[in-house]
Fold this protein.
Amino acid sequence: MQIDELNTPNSNNDESILTHEEVEKFPKSFYTHAEAIFHLQEVGIDIKQTRVAEWLGVSRANVSQVVGRMQNSGLIKLNDNLQLTETGLCLAKCISRRHRITERFLSEVLNLPWDQVYKETSRWEDVLSPVTEKAMLKMLGNPKTGPFGNPIPHSRYQEKNMKNLLNVETNKTYSIEKITEELKRDPSMIDFLQSHEMLPGSKLNVADAGDFSITISTNGNEFFGVDKFIAKRVFVS
């Protein structure tokens, strides 16, 4: 198998990546499933076929069929959890990289509304070439994360010491660093996060934490409540 650094300024020298031509030979369904597994892995969720189906909004039977084909192609190992092989992880990182670069480009350069960015990104990530990827990165200033703080693979991103909102102290100010991919898939959730300035870089203060919700404020605005599902997926430092 040939190796290609994708001809981008942010690629790590020690990363073995599939060539663009090899990536393009895989069915698009492999892209979505590899990326879903990668995102679930990022947030520490057990990677079962049912979770992948929920993430993608498809039937478990559909996932089972695609996973079987990916296993035959050497991209997945079937254990208690789904596990990407080295080649599968290369594919997942390639697509996730495209996704996060495209999100920044659509939102920051083309100024697309956030309720359109995620859907459009899913189209662009299927066809983005290394040449276009490099040009987009240069225009964006070679960022190391997507708009919601998730690392762009092969960008030499340095992980900060972070904790989610379930594990912070009250009456202390934090900075939002990252919001997991899971919250971005719902346009109404994106609208909620934006309208309450729950975005990377915002300052956040926790007033109190109850059994079902946490009361917070962002950037000195009025306090509001978030449930524990959201709190678990927002990371601060």
Notes: The radius of gyration is 18 Å.
